[in-house]
Every structure is written in C-alpha cells, then in structure tokens.
Amino acid sequence: MKIRNSLRLSLFLFWTMALAAQAAAQVAINQDNASPNPSAMLDVKSSDKGVLVPRMTTVQRVAIASPATGLLVFDETTGGFWFYNGTIWQDLSADADTDPANELQNLSLSGATLSIENGNSVDLATLPGDNFGNHTATQNLNLSGNYLSGDGDGEGVFVANNGNVGIGTASPNEQLELTGNFRLPVTTATTGAIYSGGSRFVHRYGTENFFAGIEAGNFAIGGFGSNTGVGYRALTSNTSGSFNTALGAGSLWFNTSGNDNTAVGAYALNINISGFANTVMGVYALGSNVSGANNTAIGRDALALNSTGSRNTAVGRDGLVDNVSGSDNVAIGYSAGTNTTGDNNILIGHEGVAGENNSIHLGNNTHTKTLLNGNVGIGTTAPGSALEVNGTVTATTFAGDGSALTGIPDNQTLSLSGTTLSIQDGNSVNLAGIDTDTDDQTLSLSGTTLSIQDGNSVNLAGIDTDTDDQTLSLSGTTLSIQDGNSVDLATLPGDNLGNHTSTQNLKLNGNWLSGDGGSEGIFINNSGNVGIGTNNPNAKMKVTTDATAGSALLLNYSGLNLLGSAPPAFKIDGSGYNAGGSVTGIEVDLSGATAGSMYAAIFNGGNVGIGTSTPIARLDVGGGNIALNGGWVSRDGGNEGVFVNASGDVGIGTASPLQKLSVAGSAYFTNNVGIGINAPINRLDVRENVTGVNNNANNYVAHFRNTNTDGTQEQGILHLQFDADLSGNPGNGNWIQFIENGLSKGKIENNNSGNVQYETNGADYAESLERLDHSEQIADGEVVGVYGGKISKRTDGADWVMAVSDNAAVLGNAIFDGTEANYESISFIGQIPVWVRGIVSKGDYIVASGLNDGMAIAVSPINITPEQGSRIVGRAWESKESTEVARVNTVVGLPEAASTTLALSRRVEAQQDEIATLKAQVAALQAQNNSLTSQNSTFEKRFAQLEAALQAMKSEVDNNVSTSRK
Question: How does pLDDT run across 837-856, given as a tens digit for each residue?
Fold first, then answer.
C-alpha cells in the first residue's frame, strides 16, 4: 500500500536526527524560539525554508549497503523521493493523485488473479459470482468482447430507456429489434420452437416439416415428413401422415396417417384421419372427410359432409355438400349436386337426386335452352349427324315435317267438333274465323265429304289419311294438311264488305262503325270529318274523352318491325304552311284548368318550352326542375337527381358536389370510361405513371380495398364473371392477361374442362431456399446440394442435389422480409437449363460433377453408377456436341427421384451379383456333371468287360463240369 505524505516527512526528519546523541530529548528548530510540539521528537518550523534530504543518483541509491528500513533519499535520476521498505526501494512520487491523504497502489487483473503493485495477489476464482442484483451500472458491460450497452452505440445488446431491446442497433423501434439473422436450434420436444403465450406457434419438428400457428403440428410426428401446416391447429393431430399441406385455421386438424393431402381454407379437411391424395380449397371444404381419397373440392363447403366417398370432384360453393359415401361424382357450379349420394354422376349447375347413379345432369328445369356444338351421340361414340341415338326414343311431340321419322302409326283420322277441325295425333284448326258474315255456319263431315252449312262441300277422299303425324294449317283462306292437298275456303259464301251501301251500323266484334248520330265507335259526317267519342267533329279528326275513358289519343308503336330506319311514330309536316309569324308545332293549352296556364310548345327554331311560351334554348324549363321518370334535374338546392351549382359542379344524388362530378350512389355507363386518359379504348381504361416500393398501396395504378374489419364474415375483393359457358372452348375465356412492354407474359384463362388455368412462359415450379453461406456466389443454372433445407454448391453428403431456376412459372416459399438476397430459387419440378461440362446426349442423366463447383456432367443411363445415382439432378432434353461448359435443358422432378434411382440401382447391382454367383454355381455343377458322365462311361465299359469275362468263366466252368461228369 502507499504511505501518506505526512509519514514521508516524519521518516525524513527521523533519519536526519538519527545520529544526534540527544535523541532522547525533544528538539525544536525555528526562528521564534518556540517549544517543540509535545507529540514531536523533532519540530521544524519555517515560513520560507524547507527540509533538504540527501540527494543522489539512482546508481548511488541502489549502491547503499544494507539500507535501513524507512531510509529516505531524493533520487536525482527519477526526480522523486524513494524509501526502503525493508525489502525493496519504493518511489513515493509514483501514481500520485489529487488526494495526498489517500494514495492508492496499482491493481491489475490477469484471468481470475488480482494483484497489487509490488505486493501480493489474490485468486478471485473462489469468490461467489455477481448475480447482477438491484444496482446501477455506471458503464457498459463488456462480456468477452461483446457489450450490454446503454450509451447509444450499436455493440451487442442495447436496452433503450423505454425498455425496447436492440441487437445490432441502438435505435430499436419495437420491444425487440434485430439487424441480423435469428437462428433456432433443431426442433425437438423441448427446443427450437417459438411460443405465443403458452401455446406453440412456429416449429419444424420431424423430417422436412414446417408449422406456423397456435398449436399447429405437434411433437409426436413420425413418418417420412414433408408436411406444412399454417394456421390454428393445422395438422395438430398428425402422427405418421406425410406430404400434407394445410393452410388455414383447423385445416387437416385431426389427420393422423393421411398422405399427399392439400387443404387451403379454414377447417378444410378438418376431421380427415386416413384419407389421402385429397386436394381442397375453400372454407369447410371436405370438412367431414375421414378416409375418402383422391377427392378434389374447390369452394366453401364443397363436399363438406363427405366422409368415405372417393374420387369425387366438386367445383363451386356447396358442390356435393351432402355427399357422404358416394364416389366418382363430378359437380360444377354453385350448390351443384347438393343432394347427391350416389356414384359416378356428372352434375353441372344442377342439384342432383339423392341415391342417383351413373347419371349426367346439365342445368335444371329453369333453363330454357341447351346448346351443343357438333354431332351428339346417345348410345354411340361415333355420331354421324347432329343427333344420333342408338336405342329407343320416347317423346310426347315432334316439331318439323316428320318426313324422316319411322315407326309412327298411319291411318290418321280427321274430325270436326263445333268449329274445330282436328287430325288424329296432330294439331287442330279453329274455323270460326272463316265465318266473315257472322252467320253461325256449321262444318260437317259425311264420309269423306266436308260441308259447310248453306255453302259448298269438299271431297276429302283424295287426302292421304294414312300419312304419319299429319298437321292441319290455315294460311289466309287456304286450309292445308301436311304432305297432302289444300282447300281454298275463299269460295265459301260470306260478306266481303265490298262496294255497297250499309243500311245499318256495322258492329265489329262488339264495337261500332256508325253514321247514325250516336257517339258509339267512329262517326264520319258528310264533310269527311271523323269523330271519335263525338258525333260533331269540327276538324278533320276530333277525339273527345273524359277522365274515366283514359287517354284521348294513344299511338302504340311497339308492334312495328321494319328493316332499316323506322318512320316517326307521330309526324306533323308543316312544309306547306306559310305564316308570317312563329309556327307552333304542338301546343297544349291548359289555360282552362284550375292549376293555371302551362305550355309545351315547339317553335319553328326547334326550341321546346315547358312552363314558358318563349323558350330560348332547345329545351327551356321555366319555373321548376325537370323530372325524369321520378328523378330530377334541379337547380333549387335539393338533392333530387342531377344538381348543377353556380360553379358548374355537377352532383348526382347530392346537392353538394365536391368535384366537377360527384355521384352519391351507383353509376351506369354505356360507353368507355377513361381515368387518366381522354380516349379510353376499353369499358374502363385507367392509366397512371407510378413508381416506388411495390408493397406500398400508393405505388399502384389501381387500389381495391375491402374496409370490412369483421374477419368472421364472408368477404371478397374482386369478382370476375363470364355469362357464357366456356367449357370445351380452351382459351375463349381469358380472365386476366399479364403484359410487359407490349408482350404477353402470362394469363389466367379457362381450359377445355371449364376450369381456370394459369399460363406462363415459365418452365418449372421452384421454391426459395436459403444459402448455407450467405456470402457464397451461386448463379442461375448451377447445381447445388441441399443440407437440411439450405443450399450450397458443395454436393458431397447432400440430402438432395438440385439446380437453380431463373424462369420459374411458380415460386413457393417466397421471402418478403428484406432478406431475399440470402435465398436462391431452386427448381423442384419442370424443365430448366443446367450448366453442364462435356458432351451431352438427349436422355442422359445430368449428374453433379462432384467438384463442388456448381457444374454437372452427363452420364448415359447404361453407365450410371450407384454413387452417381445419389447426385442425379435430372435428365437431358437436348443434346450438346461441344465439350465446352454450356447450359442444357434438363427435366427435373421431385428430389426423391434420385433416391429412388439409387435404390433401384443398388437393387439391380445386388441382383446382378446374385445372378453371377448362381451362374458360377451352375457352371461348377455342369462341370461336375460332365466329369461324372465321363466316369460313368468308363465304368460301363469296364462293367461290360467284367461281364464278358464272367460269362467266359461261366462257360469254361460249365464245360469243365460237363467233362468231369462224363
């Protein structure tokens, strides 16, 4: 420890007086003869002088032999006081501070060892650690080179005054803000998951799985994996199902073992357990399915109650909604097939019949026509005419001449009932209109003679009564029978009202043409004036009526049908009239009415006045608004109809227009409407020059927004509709076209099944995958290895080998959070150009080069090895003769294809080894058999020789026995 300055002085004085023999007495040195302080052995006092201790160099100081403890000198070399502490010399002036009463020694820390300058050290490793309890840090905390800071710098973790935490930033705008990546460990039951409250929210437990949403997925998933669940409880019960995609709350909620299902929409495929290969888009679509497979449902509640039915297709809301177990049904349209429970039915815009099987329904009873182009076959696949039926036809009636019909009974019978002439199995004609003189004539038939009362008769014997389905028709006075003769009825007796004088009024079907002075019907006086409702016409035509009789004059123009321009319904030709003043074309004078005088006049200038007798414009309405079928053109401040204010602003449905045109309500236009263009070429032509970030609504030409904030309601943004039936006409219905610089880049249109398809010049389906090393440069068309869902040009040991796409038709897993630069588009299926080194033949396998350089090589299918099988990218769809590196069009499939190829290759290799072993065994057995055959031949020869020898011996013995007996 350092010694106080007062101690230094005391030591110095003690050393000065050490040689004095009078040391036992107190000594005072001063100029005023003052006594020494009672506590001091030596008391030196002066106001202008100090104490001078021995001065020497450092060499001289260290050369002092056996210095006494406390010895004090001034070192001229270092310029400071030094004293001997009994062990070493110590510089009293070193590290002096402004507090001479509390000089501190230097402390240093090395690892866990705390040392004091020129002193001992303490091992701090045994001290209990700081738990950072309730105290205030006066500086940043340096944690092994990183910082927990609050000074505004961006080192480590920054905690702002409002509690926001920034990592890599000193200006966090949220409770937690990061400027780099956020990494989680591999998901297990206890790690690698993000929770919302107490519920799991995001995790990827299992193989190639991804789940996002409260309780989506679970921690007991097995099987191959490749499941994606987004939404509340999506795939939450799945245990062994694989290749499932669930997007929407409750989608595939109870699925346990079903595979290859795609569910888009809240509670789509909700209770599916083992059903597989189902494709669903719509809320509650296939929501009750348990084990049904290969179903396709598009639209809310499509196939909603289906449980076990399979291979059904429903397009449209409520399509096949009540189907439970029916299979192989197709329903297209809103509520199509709602009651169908049978099998193998096709229903388009029809509700179907419960339990029906093998039926086709087009439309329902409300449709008035069904148009089919081309020949139609019923019971035949090769119709040769507009309609060909192979079988029996049942009909109530036929239209047309029926000349080509067969199998219809002959011997038709003509009959007369009153004035109605009928033919058996045919139509009838009312002959009452022939009686032109209102005499109640009677038509009678005797045998083949048709007679009219008080008239002539016609012999009908020549009519072919046995023709098929005869039709009787009347044209003018000619009565005709189909495929038979005709009779001119003009010769029948009757009054044709020719040139003669009527002696009484004419009654025309209850009305009168009169000349007797009465007011019935039409009256014509001797001057030729015509009166209607009056017998005193004082003009060429005078019409008189009262309020109970209706209008005085009604011109009905609706029945006229002419080719070309139509004549005017009412015309006044004043070309022959010569007057010095104005000419009134039509004047309505209501001056005698109690309402006052009102005028509607047409002057020779063409001006029309309503409420004024002096119109100054083509239409001049004086003293009021204009009513148009209950609507108004007004200037009185009311909001009826069209309002025009003094500034020329026009309001429709409002009396306070805010622009040149303000419409409060719906608008209807019969011609093109332009926004931003004064010559629109379409019904709606909107043009604007906008730029900026494309996720900002202000940077688009058009903005459609649904402001309904209730997410529980059914809602929509844009509705596109064709009134025509476009099925069977691919390309006729172009829903949306995408144009870039005058060239078509893609479109959404109908296909030949009446469904919607997306067309583009893109060639593959790709997904965005993150690079293992964000700094690694990966180019389009290069080969990459996939490691746990991330990519690198290194391919050895990769899970799969794939290639980078630069012309994807569909891009999945797209990134929009600002880290897009860390991802590449990787082709999963389709065709892409891949960088290949060396010659390529069409059909070759495109295999990673193995050099981790992003290149591929071509290998013939007959030369592929098992090791290369695990690095297959795809197969070449074109050849390349050059040995230079170039891109080759390659068809790629799902990554599992490579694994399948490898497995098959290894299986073939193992079988080939077994075959080679069996061949060797067969060859050995064959050789052994040949050897045995040779040996057997030798034994047979020897046996024959032995047999011959034995026979000879037997003969000899027999001879000897015979000889001995003799």
Answer: 999 999 999 999 999 999 99
Amino acid letter at 638?
G
Lowest mean pLDDT, pick from 131-135, 313-317, 446-450, 784-788: 131-135
Residue in the block written with tokens 């509607």: 600
DSSP notation for 112-137: TEEEETTS-EEEGGGSPPP---S---
By the 8 A CB rule, do 586 and 577 touch? no
Helix (H) or strand (E) holding 12: helix 5-16
* DSSP H or E segment with residue 487: strand 486-488
Secondary structure letter of residue 491 according to DSSP: G
d(CA 535, CA 522): 8
Nearest C-alpha neighbor of 748 from the set 723, 722, 725: 722
Sign of CA dihedral 66, 71, 73, 78: positive
Residue-level length of the chain: 966
What is the C-alpha to C-alpha distance for residues 857 and 837, in angstroms, rounded to an integer?
Answer: 5
Centre a 10 Å sphere on the Cβ of residue 305 and count the other Cβ atoms it contains. 19
In angstroms, the CA 799 to CA 813 distance is 19
Of 314, 299, 305, 312, the C-alpha closest to 286 is 305
924 three-class SS? helix
- Ranked by mean pLDDT, the top range of 182-186, 546-550, 832-836, 937-941 is 832-836
Q: What is the identity of the amino acid at 57?
A: T
What single-letter DSSP state applies at residue 2?
Answer: P
- Dihedral angle computed from the Cα positions of residues 745, 751, 754 and 757, in that order, rounded to the nearest 10 degrees: -40
Q: Which residue has the higher pLDDT, 20 or 146?
A: 146
Burial call 359-368: b when 16+ CB within 10 Å, e when fewer? bebeeeeeee
Kindly compute the dihedral angle of the four CA atoms of residues 777, 778, 780, 785, in this order, to the nearest 10 degrees: 180
Taking the alpha carbons of 39, 42, 48, 50 in that order, is the dihedral positive or negative? negative
CA–CA distance, 700 with 705 (Å, rounded to integer) = 13
| 771 vs 129: CA distance, rounded Å | 41
Tokens of 847: 């295999």
**Dihedral sign of CA atoms 788, 793, 794, 797 in order:** positive
Which parts of 523-626 fold into alpha helices (H)?
none
Q: Helices (DSSP H) in 54-172: which residue ranges? A: 58-62
> What does the alpha-carbon distance between residue 26 and residue 240 come to, in Å, rounded to a whole number?
103
State how far the Cα of 185 lies from the Cα of 862, in Å rounded to an integer. Answer: 43
Is the distance from CB of 653 to CB of 664 less than 8 angstroms?
A: yes
Count each helix (H run) and each strand (E run) in the chain, helices first: 4, 65
pTM of the model: 0.34
> How far apart, in whole angstroms, are the C-alpha atoms of residue 602 and residue 584?
6
- State the DSSP H helix or E strand holding residue 912, giving kind and residue range, or none if neither: helix 896-965
Q: How far apart are the first and last CA of the chain?
A: 155
Helix (H), strand (E) at residue 422: strand 420-423
Q: What is the dihedral of CA 285, 289, 291, 297, to 10 degrees?
A: -20
pLDDT value of position 297 = 92
- Supply the DSSP string of 302-367, one letter for each residue: TTTT-SS--S-EEESTTTTTT-SS--S-EEESTTTTTT--SSS-EEES----TT--S-EEES-TT-
